[in-house]
């Protein structure tokens, strides 16, 4: 990686702005391809989110309102019902596994207590070591 950067720095002064732009484009394309190869599901989710954002920002046409209007309402209602059912099922499963807000607070408190105890023990050991040296 460092060697590529060094090579890039050496050749960038001899390249024209057009060549540097092409090289930057190729580099960005390669990084994007690597990212998609590493996490294709994340890339798909990102693409869907971007598409939904663009669709939300664009105004609706009259034709779209006539053709999709009634269907859009049904889709929205169905999505709300699905989200509600998923939320409730998730809550039930978490509760069944005893993964609740109260249990989470208990875990956090236990971790904090453990950290405090470790700090006290370490401090006492340090003081004891200094006293024994003196």
What does this structure look like?
This protein is mainly alpha-helical and 134 residues long. The chain has a domain at 1-59. The protein is 89% helix and 0% strand. It is built from 5 helices and no strands. α2 (17-38) crosses α3. The longest helix is centred in the middle third of the chain and has 35 residues, at 62-96. It is flat and about 85 Å long. The two termini are 52 Å apart. The mean pLDDT is 80.
Give descriptors for this structure:
transmembrane; membrane; Gas vesicle protein; 5 helices; transmembrane helix; mainly alpha; 134 residues
Please provide the count of β strands: 0
Computed CA radius of gyration, to the nearest angstrom: 29 Å
Percent in strands: under 5%
Number of helices: 5
Q: Which residues sit in consecutive blocks of at least 5 with pLDDT less than 50?
A: none
Mean pLDDT: 80
Alpha-beta content class: mainly alpha
Q: What profile does the largest beta sheet have?
A: none
User: What is the first-to-last residue Cα distance?
Assistant: 52 Å
CA-based shape: flat
Summarize the amount of helix as a percent range: over 70%
H-E string:
HHHHH
How would you concisely characterize the structure shown here?
It comes from Sphingomonas caseinilyticus. The protein is mainly alpha-helical and 134 residues long.
Give me the secondary-structure topology.
Elements: H1 2-12, H2 17-38, H3 40-57, H4 62-96, H5 101-133
Helix pairs in contact: 2-3
């Amino acid at each position: 990686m460092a060697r590529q950067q060094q090579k890039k720095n050496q050749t960038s002064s001899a390249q024209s702005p057009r060549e540097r732009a092409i090289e930057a484009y190729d580099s960005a394309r390669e990084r994007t391809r690597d990212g998609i190869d590493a996490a294709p599901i994340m890339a798909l989710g990102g693409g869907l989110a971007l598409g939904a954002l663009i669709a939300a920002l664009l105004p609706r046409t009259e034709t779209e309102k006539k053709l999709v209007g009634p269907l859009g309402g049904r889709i929205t209602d169905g999505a709300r019902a699905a989200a509600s059912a998923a939320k409730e099922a998730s809550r039930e499963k978490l509760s069944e596994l005893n993964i609740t807000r109260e249990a989470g607070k208990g875990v956090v408190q236990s971790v904090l207590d453990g950290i405090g105890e470790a700090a006290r023990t370490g401090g006492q050991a340090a003081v004891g070591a200094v006293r024994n040296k003196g």
